[in-house]
Fold this protein.
Amino acid sequence: MDEDYINYKSGKGFAFLHYPFILQPHVKSIGLQFDNRINMSRSIDPFFVMMSGEYPYLKLVVKRSNIVEDALTHLEMVAEEDPGQLQRQLYVEFDGEEGVDEGGVQKEFFQLIIAELFNPNYAMFVDIEDTRQVWFNAQSFEVDHNYKLIGMLLGLAVYNNVILAIRFPTVLYQKLMGEAPDIRDLIQSHPLLGSSLQQLLDYPDTDVEDVFLLDYVASTTGLFGESITHELLEGGADTPVTSDNKHDFVAKYVDYVLNTSVSKQFDQFKKGFDMIAAHSPLKAWFRPEELEKLIVGSPKLDFKALEPVARYDNGYDADTDVVKWFWEVTHAMTDDDKSKLLAFSTGCGRAPVGGMGGDELYHRKKRRRF
C-alpha cells in the first residue's frame, strides 16, 4: 500500500487508489492512514520541533464536568488561529488527572463527549420511531456551535482511527458526501413515514384525493411531543394531493424531512466535519456506506477470525491452557457478551472496518478487577 500511495500522490506509475471502486473498504482505510500521517507531518513546524524537542500534537485539556464546553472552546480557537493543527494527532488530558494518552484516554474522551452531546437533555437529536437511530431535532434550542462540534468530532475520529458509538442513518453519510436523498433513503431512515409515502406512490387508481385525503402539508413531532405542520408550498393546506401531483408531493415531503427542516443543524454539522476531512481523499475514495462503517465500525464480531492472528507475550502462546480456555469461552458467548468483551478490551464494542482479523489481541499478565 505504501508504494501504491506514493504513485497515487506523485501521479507517476499505476496506483489502485486511482480506482477506489475496486478496493475493499479496509484497504482504502490503510491508504487513508498513510494520507493522515503525511498531513499530520506537514502540519508540524520543524523549527518548533527542533527547539522544543516535543512532537506537536493537537492537545486538548478538558474537565470531565465541563467536557463539551472545554472541547468546543479549544477546537474553535484552534480552527480560527491555526486550522493546520486539526490535522495533528489528537492528545487528550483530563484536567487534574495524571496519565499518558496512549490511546485509552483519547477513546474515553470520545465516549464521554459523544454520550453527553447525544444526551436527551440537550435535545439536539430525536429518536426515530421504529428504529434505534437518531436524527437532527429541527426545534432544538441548542446553539449552532454544538452541532459543528459533533461534526468536528466525527472528522477527528476518522483522522485518529477511533470508532464512535453514534446511531445516525446512512442518509446522513450520503449528505456528508454531497448525495441528494430520495424516497428510498427516507424509507431506510424513517421507515413508517417512508413506507406510507411509498404506498401513495404505488397506489394504481386515480382516486388518490378521495382515498388518502392529503394536502401539501408535512407533519413532524415537536420538542415536547406536539404535532407541527409545515406547508410544502404556498397555500399547501388548501392544495389536495392527487394522482397527478403525488410524485411532486412525495419529493417535497422527502426534501423537507431530510433537508430543509434540519438545514440549519446539518449545515453546521457538515461545516465541522469538513474542517477536518476537507483536506483528505476521504470523499474521493469512500462511498457513503463505507464512510459509515469507517466511523461507527461493524456490529459483526467474528472472534474466530481474530484467533488465528492473535499475538501473545509474557510467556503466553496459542497452546497455553488459559489461552485455550479464553477462546473456548469467548466463542460460546452471545453476541451481546462478545460486544461487551471487545468494549472492555479496546474501548469499543464494534469491529473496525477491516474486521476482527485485522486487529491484534495481546494477553498480558495483568490483573483487572470487575
About this structure: The chain is about 50% helix and 5% strand. Strands lie at 58-62, 90-94, 125-127, 134-136, 217-221, 227-231.
